[in-house]
Amino acid sequence: MEALFRKLQSLEEAHYGQLAGKMSTVIDLMTRLPVEIWFEENPKASDTKLEENILNIVTENTLLLLDRGFYHFHFWHQLIENKVDFITRIKKGAAIKVEQVFTESYGLRDRKIRLGSGTNKTPFIILRLVEVRSGKTWHSYLTSVLDPNVLPPYVVADLYRRRWRIEDAFNTVKRLLGLSYLWTGSINGIKLQLWATWLFYAVLVDLGDAVADELSLPFDDISLEMIYRGLYHFTTAHQKGKATDPIKYFADPQNRDLGIIKQRRKPNVKLIVAPFPDLQRGSDQFFFNNSLKAS
């Protein structure tokens, strides 16, 4: 909004603010909780400086979802050497050579490829290229997991779509919890606000997860924003002696007007988990089935 107000001359004479630094976070895809948070005083620091930090915290058999800021062949080689796998997007115009074809159909291409030009900057690397058609558009993904039996192609695409959870986390801490605005200009004060906000975010996620369990709903059906805003109503009810447990309070059918449960906009789509979909269509193992079966 500041840029807009400057263009409208409302802030024409106001001094430009200085960025406080750069915040980077690793989020657990399953729990949505922060695994690690880094703060760099230089707001223009490159993402490549974070690669060493990532290498220091990841363990074997970890699967990373990387954005294009980490599109570096040497970094990928280090991950693979440490037995850490990843999924990312391929850049346009990338030099590839097809080594093996797993699936090639109208809506899906799954191939093992050699990527790179063989130079010091882009040494050759063997990866898997998964391309999924949506309408007239192809969405392309790279993964170091070379075996479709370990990571089926449509699961690759589904996992990378869930990378958006990191954006949801940043949206929550910055917009909802106020981290977009700093309380102080001192570096120590900024760090205190940063850690305190992420701690509160973790508490909010735990509360939302507990409410989802209480309602026997997926976590994605719960609105963290409305839980946060509903804390005021719970506090008021608690002061009046009408509520003692926030989980029970938010799960109570009488409090559904708080909007804790999201309105479903799109129908659920079954996830195809077959390693070779064209060959396994119609089998029991084609779609993901999360129904619990009695033993």
TrEMBL record:
Domain of life: Bacteria
GO biological process, one term: DNA transposition
Occurrences of domain Transposase IS4-like (ranges): 22-196
GO molecular function: DNA binding; transposase activity
InterPro entries: RNaseH-like_sf, Transpos_IS4, Transposase_11
Keyword DNA-binding appears in the UniProt entry: yes
Pfam families for this protein: DDE_Tnp_1 (PF01609)
Keyword Amino-acid biosynthesis: no
Signal peptide: none
Stretches assigned to coiled coil: none
Keywords: DNA recombination, DNA-binding, Transposition
Alphabetized NCBIfam families for the sequence: transpos_IS4_1
Family: Belongs to the transposase 11 family.
The protein, known as: Transposase
Annotated source species: Nostoc sphaeroides CCNUC1
